[in-house]
Design a protein that fits this description.
Blueprint: H1 2-7, H2 25-34, E1 38-42, H3 58-72, E2 80-85, H4 91-94, E3 104-105, H5 110-125, H6 133-153, H7 158-162, H8 166-180
Parallel strand pairs: 1-2, 2-3
Length: about 180
């Protein structure tokens, strides 16, 4: 998702971009919501996947904050957001109050996430002349292969690459996209 947002020329903002323990995560999220023209909420982790595992309510809670900010703050009335989920209509089992909202499903497949995000930017934001979801998927895979090659050459372990800090990951994508010039 982060790769696609950058690929399309936008700046992804997430709470993990800053790990200052002196700032509450919820305050970071509220600040991002207030200062972003677009938001993406992925509700695919609502349901626990293992016995005795808690289901996750952070994303629906954040969606509620975002929805209310759009509804009750005139400055954010034009804000647009995308809601993603794993399977169509699963969200209604947990959050039936949002029945009737257009939601895109991604089947927990990265290429479907790229397609959903790309298509939303075309449909809702009005982007034009955007590469196909398949091309973005190919470019993402090429980026990832180059990233692993470069970073392992710099003595990063696979685990360190997989869990690199978000700002570092975004910088790596930006450097790669400068050479790709996708649009």
């Amino acid at each position: 998702m982060i790769y696609t947002i950058l690929y399309l020329g936008f700046n992804p903002r997430i709470a993990l971009e800053n790990s200052d323990s002196g700032i509450m995560r919820l305050d970071k999220i509220c600040n991002l919501i207030e200062n972003s023209k677009y938001s993406i909420h992925d509700l695919s982790r609502l349901k626990s996947s293992k016995k005795n595992e808690f289901y996750r309510l952070n994303m629906p809670f954040e969606l509620g904050i975002d929805y209310s900010s759009r509804r009750y703050n005139k400055e954010l009335a034009d804000k647009k957001f995308l809601i993603l989920e794993k399977d169509s209509f699963n969200y209604m089992k947990a959050i039936s109050d949002i029945n009737g909202i257009d939601i895109k499903s991604h089947k927990s497949k990265p290429e479907e996430i790229i397609k959903s995000v790309r298509n939303w930017f075309v449909e809702t934001v009005g982007l034009k002349n955007v590469n196909s979801p398949t091309q973005i998927w190919y470019d993402f895979n090429d980026f990832f292969a180059r990233l692993y090659e470069v970073k392992t050459g710099q003595n990063f372990t696979i685990d360190e690459i997989d869990f690199m800090p978000i700002p570092e990951y975004i910088d790596e994508i930006r450097k790669d996209l400068l050479n790709l010039n996708p649009l």
